[in-house]
Design a protein that fits this description.
By secondary structure, this protein is of the alpha+beta class. It has three helices and four strands, in the order αββααββ.
C-alpha cells in the first residue's frame, strides 16, 4: 500500500531543482514539470519529467555562466545513492533520458529514480 512506503529525505528534491533551474528556467513559455510515482512489486519508481530545453542546451548555457550555479544533484546525489546502496538491501539508482521529437530536437528531460520498497528509513 502507498501509505506504507517511505522515501529517504531530500532524495527527489535535487532532481526537481535541476529540472526547474536547468531545463525550464530558460524556456520562454508552456513550462511543464511532471512528478509521478509508480509502485512496482519491490520498488518505487519516481519519474521527474520536464519539457525544458534539454540537457545539451542547458550545458551550453551553463558553460557561459561559469561560477553562477553548481548542480547539486550531480555529485551529491551520486554519493547519497552509493551510501543508501551500502546501507540497505535493494538497488537505488537514477537514470537520465533525453527526450527528443521525431526531428531529433530536444523536447525535455526525464529522470527515473528507483527506490527499493523499504518500509522505514
Amino acid at each position: 500500500h502507498w501509505e506504507h512506503i517511505s522515501v529517504p529525505p531530500m532524495l527527489i528534491q535535487p532532481f526537481i531543482e535541476n529540472a526547474l533551474i536547468h531545463g525550464l528556467l530558460h524556456k520562454e513559455s508552456n513550462r511543464q514539470l511532471k512528478v509521478t510515482f509508480e509502485l512496482h512489486e519491490n520498488h518505487l519508481l519516481c519519474i521527474v519529467e520536464d519539457n525544458g530545453i534539454g540537457r545539451q542546451k542547458a550545458r551550453e548555457i551553463k558553460s557561459r555562466q561559469i561560477g553562477q550555479h553548481q548542480s547539486f544533484a550531480t555529485g551529491a546525489n551520486s554519493q547519497r545513492f552509493e551510501i543508501l546502496n551500502s546501507m540497505h538491501t535493494g538497488q537505488y539508482g537514477f537514470e537520465y533520458i533525453d527526450l527528443v521529437n521525431d526531428k531529433g530536437q530536444a523536447t525535455g528531460t526525464k529522470v527515473l529514480i528507483r527506490i527499493p520498497a523499504i518500509r522505514e528509513y
